[in-house]
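Chapter review: from sequence to fold.
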Amino acid sequence: GMGVDLFFRFSTSRISGWGSYSLVDFERTQRAQVFGLPQISRHNVRFCTTLALIKQLTITPSLVLRSSPENLPDTYRNAGVSLELPYEINGNILFSPVDSLDLFVTVRNASFRRYALRGVSGPALQEPRWVLGGLRYRY
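The token string follows.
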């Protein structure tokens, strides 16, 4: 097995963020048969940035992008989901009108790209879209 992960981050007065790229490779030989990556993506890219629109309001979009999973069994071919170039678009909005009070909304998988990576009895839809909002008070 082999893997590499590259990471960076940046920051200015109004924008900050980070990103990463990872590469994984795997090969196993068992009884003269060679197996490659076990149903996972070889390439993974993640990028996130936070924009401070005003002092009390930030918006944070993010992207997770993967290569198509490799060595999938035949059951995945008819799963009804696209396994080509899986990605997720996420977002967060944070409003802090005073130092002790935060209002927030977080959306995961806003693009609603559903794809199967693993399942116990065959492919299972994963990466659902979810929205979380709330009020946080600190004292």
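Two observations follow directly from the output. The chain has a mean pLDDT of 84. The chain has no helices and eleven strands.
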